[in-house]
């Protein structure tokens, strides 16, 4: 009898990477908000890349929205491009802003961005602060 050598095992094939589901857009803008962002971008005193939106602690209800000029895109920013404008979302605010619609309203008394946020639990009477919960993903 001849000596038999066992056959080499077949090389293991690498499993194909799973297709990642697309990430949901954190926020969307109304036409009025997009127009206001475009106007602010044009009128800015210096070069800006868009507006940065975030959340800070404080106020009667515990938190408030922040909107400021963004002079640079930070590596951790969540970039939202909608209706021709760019909104940069602070990474610490993403879970609180998922599903939010940013609007802009102006009347005789005031002009402001309005956040229609499904994660908002309550708001103070003056409308300056809110209580938010993280989005359920």
How much strand? 35-45%
Distance between the termini: 65 Å
Helix content: 10-25%
Trace the largest sheet across and list its strands: 3-2-5-4
Question: What integer value in Å does the Rg equal?
Answer: 24 Å
Unreliable runs: none
Sheet bearing the most strands, described? 4 strands, mixed
Output mean pLDDT.
Answer: 86
Question: What class, by secondary structure content?
Answer: mainly beta
Succession of helices and strands: EHEEEEHEEEE
Task: Tell me the overall shape.
Answer: elongated
> Given the structure, what is the number of helices?
2
DSSP E strands, number: 9
Describe, in short, the structure shown.
This protein is mainly beta and 137 residues long.
Task: Tell me what you see in this structure.
It is built from two helices and nine strands; from the N terminus they run βαββββαββββ. With 137 residues, the chain is mostly beta strands. The strands form three sheets. A four-stranded mixed beta sheet has the order 3-2-5-4. Strand 4 and strand 5 (85-89) form a beta hairpin.
